[in-house]
Amino acid sequence: MPFAVQDLTLRLGRTEVLHGLSFALPQGGITGIIGPNGCGKTTLLRCLAGLLPPESGSLHHAGQPVASLTHRDRARRIALMPQSAIAPPGLTVRQLVARGRTPWLRPFRPMTRADEAAVAGALDEVGLTPLADRAVESLSGGQRQRAWIALVLAQASGTLLLDEPLNFLDLPHQAGLVQMLRRLGESRSVVMILHDLTIAARLCDHVLALRDGRLVASGPPSDVLADGPLRETFGIGFDCLHLPGSGGPVVLPAGL
Fold first, then answer.
1. What's the DSSP call for residue 5?
2. What would the mean pLDDT of 173-182 be, rounded to a whole number?
3. 72 contacts 156 by C-beta, under 8 angstroms
4. Fewer CB within 10 Å: C terminus or N terminus of the chain?
5. Are 164 and 184 in contact (CB under 8 A)?
6. pLDDT reported for residue 231
7. How far is the C-alpha of 227 from the C-alpha of 246, rounded, in Å?
8. What is the chain's mean pLDDT, rounded?
9. From the CA atom positions of the chain, what is the Rg in Å?
10. 130/184 Cα distance (integer angstroms)
11. Span 161-177, average pLDDT
12. Residue 93: how many CA atoms within 13 Å on its side-chain side?
């Protein structure tokens, strides 16, 4: 399993943000983290990436304590795409994606053919090869999201952590990115923060629900994305429906 967490507590300053979390995530597939704003989702993701050390409890990745990993080893195992990432002005898509190779580069040595092949493969996987020499700021929102995902793919880590990868995208871009994320989950462990519960129900293999820094539920979408756990997570009722014909799930606040 990519992550095993036991009694994890984390403070930011004097505030306890995560309270005694315990869960294990399955190997491979897509795990979604859901919950209201301010419940600790991004803090948890940064903790899983090793950027925020817990005050107490244990955090293991593939059986090894995350705290025992060097920065380079951790980056080779775990790749994080932060929310609303911004590239420096003038940076091309290829140059951005090449930054994902940093954990594998030898000091003061240029990229090898293997590094260049990893960059080319990541660009191809997200469909941005034709735009590789364009400046990142010239891309559409959906294309920029793909460029940042290509960076974490070039990092060649087995576990990807994505903070709201669908945020601020229109419906066509969301649909395209969802299809790409589904493909990524076939060969990697992907953990992502999601706000759209219907997308979580259709995309994820596993879901974590948080409220006020505490774990409400953890398990398959059919168990977590139900009225009881969702009511406890968000404080309101939900209608969990299935479309006629396709049977696809739809999750809406009750009364809409």
1. E
2. 88
3. no
4. C
5. no
6. 96
7. 21
8. 93
9. 19
10. 20
11. 87
12. 23
